[in-house]
């Protein structure tokens, strides 16, 4: 089935998560995007419904959107979802099932991209999605439920352009 939706995790997948800051990211003294994400989003958002999904304990979707505006990438996302609005937290697969329901697509039409194997990859796979694990680190042990592993957001563009070939 053709892919229609790309769902990104927020922290350390789209935006750098600085552990030294607390509270909503929009209020942090410094916010920063992951290298290559803006170029990737520019291409991906023209071909797919693009969503952001996060547990974001200190932010709701509105605050998440304001943080994205600070770095100029809010316009690339069709939907923003946080656990506050969804009523579920990752790694509960119902987090992803609720997103699928709200968008109105089949799980097989969705790709989840995240940096946390258990919370992002395992739980979205259990919801029926295909998965891409993003990690800047070298992976030592196999991650069977990740359909693909990328170490750079620039790799994402190529991967999505060739998906299903």
């Amino acid at each position: 089935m053709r892919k229609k939706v790309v769902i990104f995790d927020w922290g350390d997948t789209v935006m750098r998560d600085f552990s030294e800051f607390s509270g909503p990211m929009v209020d942090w003294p410094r916010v920063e995007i992951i290298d290559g994400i803006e170029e990737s989003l520019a291409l991906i958002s023209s071909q797919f419904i693009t969503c952001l999904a996060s547990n974001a304990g200190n932010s709701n979707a509105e605050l998440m959107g304001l943080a994205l505006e600070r770095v100029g990438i809010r316009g690339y996302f069709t939907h923003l979802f946080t656990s506050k609005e969804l009523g579920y937290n990752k790694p509960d697969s119902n987090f992803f099932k609720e997103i699928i329901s709200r968008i109105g697509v089949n799980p097989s039409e969705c790709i989840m991209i995240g940096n946390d194997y258990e919370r992002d990859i395992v739980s979205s796979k259990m919801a029926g999605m295909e998965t891409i694990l993003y990690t800047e680190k070298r992976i030592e042990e196999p991650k069977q439920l990740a359909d693909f592993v990328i170490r750079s957001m620039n790799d994402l563009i190529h991967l999505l352009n060739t998906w299903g070939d």
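The chain has a mean pLDDT of 92. Residues 5-162 form a domain with the Rossmann fold fold (CATH 3.40.50.1000).
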